Predict the structure.
Amino acid sequence: MNRTLSAIVYVILFLMGIKLGAFSNLAGNVLRMGVITAVSALCILVMNALALAALGTLALARCSRAGVWLSTCSSFAAW
């Protein structure tokens, strides 16, 4: 499975290289891809942080409704 995934990644990178080589403005296109990658990574990180905060709040609310300490709450440990 891991070897197959590596092969797929190399094929995708190869195809991206061929596609980029066909462009006349290679530097501009690489810069554009970098900006798109950075914005996508930032969005993913922000959404992950929001989801973790929401899950933590949800688990804390479950523990407080159950009337147990956070460290012994099984619903918090499950998250």
In short: Residues 75-79 have pLDDT under 50 and may be disordered. The chain is about 85% helix and 0% strand. The helical segments are 2-21, 26-66, 74-78.
